[in-house]
Amino acid sequence: MTLAKSQQGKIPATVITGFLGAGKTTMIRNLLQNADGKRIALIINEFGDLGVDGDVLKGCGAEACTEDDIIELTNGCICCTVADDFIPTMTKLLERENRPDHIIIETSGLALPQPLVAAFNWPDIRSEVTVDGVVTVVDSAAVAAGRFADDHDKVDALRAGDENLDHESPLEELFEDQLTAADLIVLNKTDLIDAAGLKSVRDEVASRINRKPTMIEAKNGEVAAAILLGLGVGTEGDIVNRKSHHEMEHEAGEEHDHDEFDSFVVELGAIADPAVFVERLRNVIAQHDVLRLKGFVDVPGKSMRLLIQAVGSRIDQYFDRAWAPGETRSTRLVVIGLHDMDEPALRAAISALV
Q: Which one of 32, 90, 105, 222 counts the least CB within 10 Å of its CB?
């Protein structure tokens, strides 16, 4: 395959990464609505079978990114399916007659940015596209609450009796991997913590990485397009120096997969009282240690669907758009947790809320 060279040079691509619920989709939605006339193509990779983020962004109504410019990859983690999914997707995108001014890639909250960025060194892609920068979004409230920090003294004590025990949890490793790849770190949701909490988050993030990428603060994912786009880093040329834990494990002969995490979709009927439902759902999430829950709720008598997004026991909800003509009204929630979560019990607990 030979792609025609753009007269304006390579198309810049921004990779936006960050853990589940950090606020990536909200930040991208804000960006699309304030894109300063740029035509943007968006590639979204979600973990789980329900494409919530893609649906939210398709409904944002931004002229910068029409529904035809939004491509969803929901059949796995993009870092594991680069050859099968990402490269063919990029090829088709670049073969379009009306090519974008900028490409934004939102990774799954469980994805490693490193393999994805390395894929931009694929010859036919490298000649056409450059990685403008990797933006890592951090949930400041979650970091302040210690969600990504293990008790290392306890782990070291246990490890002394079992050499096969991993030193770091899957959450902690992934958090560090996403930070390691960053050219820009966005400390999001700073409105949910105080000044002391913010300082602790800055210190915690800085302690996780050897490099010193720019770190900025944000509320509700509100970051100007001029800050997110136009970094001009060319990250594909330096990604070899930003190895993830899994890449280092590969070099040591160990296999990489995402068996640490799992997801499933719960389908329910209409929810007559969403306030009561959300409060009860909060209790279920806390009891079962759910990492992330998101989806859409059918509220009788309402012409719009209710979007629910939960990070731990923190739940946001709002009516995002009207149900489309002919669209089946239903309540569908995707639940994401560690691989050992009790799916039957959790599914039954959520179903019992209706």
A: 222
Estimate the crossing angle of helix 343-351 against helix 274-288, to 10 degrees: 160
| Region 261-351: CATH code | 3.30.1220.10
**What is the 3-state composition of the chain as percent helix, strand, coil, each rounded to the nearest 5?**
35, 25, 40
- Residue 11: partners with Cβ closer than 8 Å, 6 or more residues away: 94, 99, 100, 101, 102, 103, 128, 129, 130
Tens digits of residue pLDDT in 168-192: 456 788 889 999 999 999 999 999 9
Q: Which residues make up the CATH 3.30.1220.10 domain(s) of the chain?
A: 261-351
Strand-pair partners of 45: 73
Looking at mean pLDDT, say which of 93-102, 320-329, 343-352 comes out highest. Answer: 343-352
Mean pLDDT of 45-55: 54
Q: What is the pLDDT of residues 118-154, one digit of tens each?
A: 889 988 888 999 999 999 999 999 899 887 754 444 4
d(C-alpha 108, C-alpha 86), whole Å: 13
Reduced to 3 states (helix: H, G, I; strand: E, B; else coil), residue 138 is strand
Q: What is the CATH number of domain 11-251?
A: 3.40.50.300
* Sheet containing strand 11-17, strands side by side: 70-73, 40-45, 102-106, 11-17, 129-139, 184-188, 214-217
